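Section 3.1: Structural characterization of target chains.
Under the original work plan, the team committed to producing a structural model for every single-chain target entering the pipeline before any wet-lab resources were allocated. The record below documents one such target. The sequence was received from the expression subgroup and is listed exactly as submitted; it comprises 355 residues.
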Amino acid sequence: MSAATKTDTTIANTNVVTKYKAAADVTNSVLRKVISACKEDSKIIDLCKLGDAAIVDGLSTQYTKDKSISKGISYPTSVSVNNIVCHYAPSENDTTSQQTLKKGDIVRVQLGAHIDGYAAVSGGTVVIGASAEAPVTGKAADAIAAAHYAAEAIQRLIKPGNKNMAVTDKVQKIAGAFGCKPIENMLCHEQKQNDLDGQKQIILNPAPENRSTFATCEFAPYEVYLIDVFITSGEGRTKKSELRTNIYKKTGTSYQLKMKSARATFSDISKTFGTFPFTIRSCEDERQTRMGLIECTKMGVVQAFDIQEEKPSEAVAQVTFTALVTPNGVERITQGVAFDTKVIQTEKKIEDAEI
């Protein structure tokens, strides 16, 4: 196909926008469903299964006439609780598979769908048992409020002509106003068809050694961004959890795998999940997949989404959304948990008028 006739895969193409928004409709609906099911005594694994099944079901009614269009999960449902920051999607064989939610737990849910490789991802934070009559206060309220206002600021700032480090500076100031910090070295990415990890990135809290070397970029019309805001009441530094990793994705790196099990696993991943993250639980043979993943991850052809954790005494909040950057402004197509000041009652506020 010549350059002149090549299909435009950016959001300058209205067909692409329609696919993004159809995927977003599914994502938004499923996130609401999972958040509603986050109640005291709910099993985390059941919530993850609920989300994944609902995404598949929701996509079954989209683009039914064109069988050539791929559809699927662009981010498997993860339900991370309290100091477990992200990527928690337990398997039946995990020792923690029967874990349930408790009153007062801070729960972060993330999930996503794609249509024809155009992905819409969303994530939000809810506190179990919270209401206007029993509001969230203290560190939890501070972190949730900071994440909300940081996300709002990012949406305003990723317009054409602005630069990524201006976003970094603004988010750090907002978090600081609530006595919080963004999680260190967490990234937001430009996304393209079949790719959640595009070349342009935003870092919300670079480690000192990364700030001067991090690539500066300028936002441009017709770009799409996956915005991941993680705010903690702590110092911003997390560590790898001892909980077993269950989410993986292909990296795009090429390597001739030596082990038969690794080659078979990589082939299955490519056919079933493509370039999007997947959970071990969704694989046909979990034991064989884990064996095959050993060489795949060692050689860098598959990335492990290791579970990260904060100190147990700290509160962590998340806001994740997909945004379309157009010449006329930024459109947020996925919506998380509504921010209600009657439920989230922080004593802190943004005093700086410039913020």
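The first strand starts at residue 71 and ends at 81.
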